[in-house]
């Protein structure tokens, strides 16, 4: 029986989420240069989605004739290249498959100037231009968190509701709307370079916004800090970076779940993968916040500060009037913080989309959608 081509198997797995891979041959060549094919045997011992505890991994490895030392060595080498996640989870040591974006992200952070890095930057750009518009999955990976100062009544404290008193709107402000609360719930914090901005700079299209703005948490922080892709932060250090990002007009994008988040990106519209797909009219990668802008035209003096800062193109001036399209608004709140006339405010959307409870619930759902998409592609051709 001919030996299985594990590099080709990796490309098929990477295509599961994106559909057709752009630059497939170049990506395969990068894989061949980056990792030994023999180590990829350990990758395919892991489940399609979610973690595999060390105890179960050892049993699976034994059935393939691998010792614990061998399989852990393979996976640790893969983690050092951004191909798997290796971390101390709630149930001890665990391993998890990374997708193609995770791989290219870590390689971009790791590599100095070389042909491989340029290939991966071009791959990122092609994903944004082609694959992101045809994702086989529907559930957004990320969602926007509004600038914290713009969240209405964010500091309101819980109170007792008396008999016969009207019950407050259950759609009101929640911890999942407030960036400081989302970060406070995490047990490990790190910061890494922004993959999107770095890729664009390599291609000569970068902006002047800072690079070290990609926040990582919990299991993701553990694997990235251990392998040198991120550095550890305290809560106060993390919030200082986040507040500075707000001042620079960057948009908070967090994992599209209510808790146990792993990433919070501070994004610019010129480079961010999620914001760029939103500008293309695709909502599979990113979701808006639970808020939308409410505009008061009588207060507007057309100073255009809000137009330049809006990341989604929801605002423009026509015939001497400010025109705001709520259907395009991502609910970031930047127009609220920049308008000197206070002509904008954030209000709850009439319909708030379902937000998965945890990171693992989110990616379990995305994984099921990806498998269904693969079946449809095979059936329909």
Rg, Cα atoms, Å: 22 Å
Provide the helix percentage.
25-40%
Number of strands: 14
Biggest β-sheet: strands ordered side by side in the sheet: 7-5-6-9-8-4-10
Report the end-to-end length measured between terminal Cα atoms: 28 Å
Oligomer: single chain
How many helices? 15
What do we call the CATH homologous superfamily of the domain at 6-135? Winged helix-like DNA-binding domain superfamily/Winged helix DNA-binding domain
Largest sheet: 7 strands, mixed
Structural class: alpha+beta
Q: Can you tell me the overall shape?
A: globular
Q: What is the beta-strand fraction?
A: 15-25%
The name CATH uses for the topology of the domain at 6-135 is Arc Repressor Mutant, subunit A
Low-confidence stretches: 156-170
- What is the name of the CATH class of the domain at 6-135? Mainly Alpha
What is the architecture of the domain at 6-135 at the second tier of CATH?
A: Orthogonal Bundle
């Amino acid at each position: 029986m001919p030996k299985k081509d594990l590099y080709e198997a990796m490309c098929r797995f990477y295509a599961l989420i994106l559909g057709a891979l752009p630059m497939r041959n170049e990506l395969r060549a990068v894989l061949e240069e980056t990792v030994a094919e023999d180590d990829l045997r350990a990758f395919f011992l892991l489940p399609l989605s979610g973690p595999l505890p060390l105890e179960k991994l050892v049993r699976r490895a034994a059935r393939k004739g691998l010792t614990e030392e061998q399989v852990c060595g393979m996976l640790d080498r893969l983690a050092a290249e951004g191909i798997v996640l290796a971390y101390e989870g709630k149930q001890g040591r665990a391993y998890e498959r990374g997708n193609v974006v995770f791989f290219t992200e870590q390689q971009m952070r790791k590599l100095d100037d070389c042909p491989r890095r340029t290939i991966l930057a071009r791959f990122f750009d092609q994903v944004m231009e082609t694959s992101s518009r045809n994702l086989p999955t529907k559930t957004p990976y990320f969602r926007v968190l509004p600038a914290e100062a713009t969240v209405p009544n964010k500091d309101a404290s819980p109170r007792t509701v008396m008999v016969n008193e009207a019950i407050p709107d259950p759609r009101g402000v929640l911890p999942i709307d407030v960036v400081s609360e989302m970060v406070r719930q995490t047990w490990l914090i790190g910061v890494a370079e922004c993959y999107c901005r770095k890729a664009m700079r390599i291609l000569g299209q970068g902006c002047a916004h800072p690079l070290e703005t990609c926040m990582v948490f919990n299991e993701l922080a553990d694997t990235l800090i251990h392998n040198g892709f991120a550095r550890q932060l305290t809560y106060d250090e993390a919030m200082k970076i986040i507040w500075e990002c707000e001042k620079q007009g960057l948009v908070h994008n967090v994992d599209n779940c209510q808790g146990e988040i792993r990433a919070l990106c501070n994004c610019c519209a010129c480079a961010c993968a999620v914001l760029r797909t939103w500008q293309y009219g695709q909502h599979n990668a990113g979701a808006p916040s639970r808020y939308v802008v409410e505009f008061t035209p009588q207060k507007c003096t057309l100073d255009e500060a809000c137009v330049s800062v809006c990341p989604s193109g929801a605002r423009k001036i026509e015939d001497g009037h400010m025109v705001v399209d709520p259907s395009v608004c991502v609910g970031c709140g930047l127009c609220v913080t920049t308008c000197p006339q206070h002509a904008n405010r954030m209000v709850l959307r009439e319909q708030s989309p379902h937000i998965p409870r945890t990171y693992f619930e989110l990616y379990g759902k995305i994984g099921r959608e990806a498998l269904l998409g693969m079946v449809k592609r095979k059936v329909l051709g």
